[in-house]
Write a structure and sequence with these properties.
about 240 residues; alpha+beta; 2 domains; 5-stranded antiparallel β-sheet; two-stranded parallel ribbon; 5 helices; 9 strands; elongated
Length: about 240
């Protein structure tokens, strides 16, 4: 059995639902994986089950060569038939995330950023071009003023720990990749709920959408960041890695 380790790192971006979930995220995720696992089991039995007992038998070189060739042919057939269902599973996870983002609008329209940080300023300029941020107010502050984001560090540590505790690694125990990774961007709004969750920079689409959904699934309220005593929107980047040993 593979040993699985989940790592969650933290990146800050200086941007600053109490409402009930309209969708049961866990139920929807379980439904998606249940449908896929049913089809996967069906195709595995069809193409690969006959090889399970053969590996424990003593075969001569000729028989081993023949079995290897036969297995490769059948595994290729299995891969070709399961591939559309893998793509469908990933697409369903994406659609579910889009739907949840849509159902949970941001509370607040004020975004604070460190204007003397060139990386952050570039990120803000890019955000301003997005139609999503049309009605948002962007306020630039200096690094010396950044001390007013007193809740940022506390919140991201709590969110990171909650995600690690909530993440269901069982769906990835059979992964062929040694390390799965994704950077999740999200906003903690003025009400203190995680919103607008987006996966980026990933080496595995399924892991990316599943990680983003897991963040939403926690449905926990945190104390929002403040600026001059008022709640603000805070945007974060959260790199997530899962290692298999």
């Amino acid at each position: 059995m593979k040993k699985i380790t989940l790592f969650v790192l933290v990146l800050f971006c200086n941007f600053s639902f109490a409402q009930k979930e309209k969708i049961s995220i866990k139920q929807e995720i379980n439904k998606i994986y249940s449908e896929f696992n049913k089809k996967n089991t069906e195709l595995s039995k069809k193409h690969l089950e006959k090889y399970k007992g053969l590996k424990s038998k003593k075969l001569n070189d000729t028989e081993n060569t023949a079995m290897d060739m036969s297995y490769k042919i059948d595994y290729r057939k299995y891969s070709e038939e399961i591939d559309p269902f893998i793509k469908s599973k990933i697409e369903k996870l994406k659609i579910l995330l889009d739907k949840i983002n849509e159902q949970n609008p941001l509370v607040g329209r004020t975004i604070i950023y460190v204007k003397d940080d060139p990386v952050e300023t570039l990120s803000i300029e890019s955000a301003k071009k997005s139609s999503f941020y049309t009605n948002f107010e962007f306020i630039g502050i200096t690094k010396n003023e950044e001390i007013e984001f007193v809740k940022r560090v506390e919140n991201i540590q709590k969110i990171r720990n909650d995600l690690v505790g909530n993440f269901d690694t069982s769906h990835f125990s059979d992964s062929d990749e040694m390390t799965l990774s994704v950077k999740i961007s999200f906003i903690l709004d003025e009400d203190g709920f995680v919103k607008r969750v987006r996966p980026t920079d990933t080496n595995n689409e399924e892991f990316a959408y599943f990680s983003a959904l897991s963040l939403y699934e926690m449905n926990k309220k945190y104390e929002p960041s403040t600026y001059k005593g008022k709640p603000i929107l805070s945007r974060y980047g959260l790199p997530v890695k899962m290692k298999f040993k």
